[in-house]
Write a structure and sequence with these properties.
- The complex is a heterodimer of chains A (388) and B (262).
- In chain A, a hairpin with a 2-residue loop joins strand 14 and strand 15.
- The longest helix of chain A has 14 residues.
- Chain A has 2 domains: 209 residues, P-loop containing nucleotide triphosphate hydrolases (Rossmann fold, 3-Layer(aba) Sandwich), CATH 3.40.50.300; 162 residues, no CATH class.
- In chain A, 46% of the residues are buried.
- Chain A contains 7 helices and 19 strands.
- The C terminus of chain A is likely disordered.
- Chain A is an alpha/beta fold and 388 residues long.
- Chain B has one domain.
- Chain B contains 9 helices and no strands.
- In chain B, helix 5 packs parallel to helix 9.
- The longest helix of chain B is centred in the N-terminal third of the chain and has 53 residues.
- The radius of gyration of chain B is 19 Å and the shape is globular.
- Chain B starts with a helix and ends with a helix.
- Classes of the chains: A alpha/beta (388), B mainly alpha (262).
- Chains A and B meet through helix 1, strand 5 and helix 2 of A and helix 1 and helix 9 of B.
Chain lengths: 388, 262
Amino acid sequence: MALPMLELHGVRKSYATPNGRHSVLKGVDLTMQPGERLGVCGLNGAGKSTLIGIIGGALSPDSGRIVRRGRISWPVGGGGFHGSLTGYENVRFIAEIFGADVRKVCAYAQEFAELGKFFYLPYRTYSSGMRGRLAFAVSMAIDFDTYLVDEGLGAGDMRFYERCRQAIEEKKVHSNFIVVSHSLQMIEELCNRFSLLHEGKLYVFDDLPSAHDAFAEVFAAGSVAPFRSMWKLDTAGPVQARIVGESDNTLDIALSASGAGRVIAYWGNSTGTSARAGDFWRAECEAHLLLGDASIVDPRWTGLIAVERDFGATALGSEVFSRPIATGDAMNAEFAIAHEDARYLHLGVRVEVGAPGTLTFRIGRPQLERRPAFSRPDALPLLTEVSP
Amino acid sequence: MAASSGRTLYIQGRVISALIKREMRTRIGHLSWIWLLMEPILHCAVLVLLFEVLRRRSPVPGIDSAEFVLTGILPLLFYQRTSNQVLHATDGNHSLLVYPQVTPLDLGIARAALEIAILYVVCLGFLAVKWLLGFGLEFSDPPGIMLACLSLGLIGLGVGLAGASVSLYVHWVGRVLPYVNRLIYLTSGVFFTIENVSGQYREYLMWSPFAQAVEWARTSYFPIMSTDYLNLSVVFFALTGTLCAGVLAERATRQEARSGNY
């Protein structure tokens, strides 16, 4: 058997904070064989970026041993670009510090990132989607034995995501990948090994079903504050929204569900990819919101949703949307829209709670499997809202 | 082991050269080449003018007062501008620390190298003007001039690195350094020689590496100037001390500097 590409033995890392040391990694062990594509999932603040920083070599662990074989990329997607330099100049710099062929790398990155004239404009003028595209393109342009992808694919539209998937497909024979994401679906699609970073430990699973159970347990746990943007949904299964963190003016909402299908939260006009006016979708859901122990509202929807306007490709990086809420506001949820050719149905969830505060949403890549196609109904589309 | 440290050095050289090129692009992007050179030139011009207005008499007989002041300001600028640039090298390029092979030390060295190069060009520019005006270019020790300036630049690198490292923990250090530098400016013999100073103050001044380096540059520059007070070991001691302190402090705080990215 070939030597492992990467070994981590008992890796620990903590940071100094005003309230004493905060332990992020509490003894992480990992062995990666050639040909592995490891997905690292975890809640916000679980230490995913720290772990990938240590693997890449930028951070040193407090203790533990790391063996790296071959060339490892930097954590792609975690910055490293200069705003006043052009995309071209930034790419050049990266190629130079990695000792790669500058001309080749620039040509490849320019083609792959599809930035057009923006490639020669300052980086600060780029949208978040363009930034993500450029970062991923440069890393693909340089040959590494192990690529570290840190949420790098979260930004960018569906089309680019597909291209990234293909690029990874082409490279997977010779290269390993470590993909950090809080999108389970992305990890399912790209990886052949799955891991969960939770409370300082890394749990590695060789097959999807066992990973799923562990993920579901962690992400549904009410004790953890950050919000997950994507979750599984039964055709008519429950969606739970639960307030899990509370500060002076912010309530973090965690939503969870189980079953087939995928749901993404969206807010207001932050809609995403590829729905066209005139499409019809059927949506069924049941939502349940808890504030503390009190159940506030328990609405149920089923209905056909008409897409009222085209939704072009937009940047879909993780974003936080918040909105002040007055006492007594109702909660409701909406599910909507996708293009008939799209692999994904783009659903939205809107939540309003009956207590003062601010709702915080984090929005990820909207992906939702399309319900079976409907023919255009004779009657006007229905959206039945069951009032609380 | 030897092979791997050779490789490390090679990578560091590659990184520093890429950083210098990049630093040039960002700074030219902001200000253009002309301004890059004009800034120190204007600085000198204002001070020379001030000196002319206030005093008009050269501290050393036989030496033009403007030239006397210039030969004090320019070497000192090597220290002052380099230390200031290096002090802010990390916060200005923080995002680059995501690349494992880029360290705060590289950022500092790249900035110092560029700053020192710019100032050498400025010095050459002044000499060219002097030559074009029909004056002869005669120096008592040309390498001495260059070494004096370089020493001040390297002291600046050491101080900047140490300052940047300490200010990760003690934030006001970064804000105080410019004031300290101003004090150094006034006490380093830009407007006078060590010999001009009387009594106990001369004793103090002789321990200032800045005053010593300026004295070194001047005596290497003016063939007619001589001094009994030059003590190069003060300069070399300060140079070694600040560089060691800077490099060690950077090494000790490297993880802290990086941690902001994660």
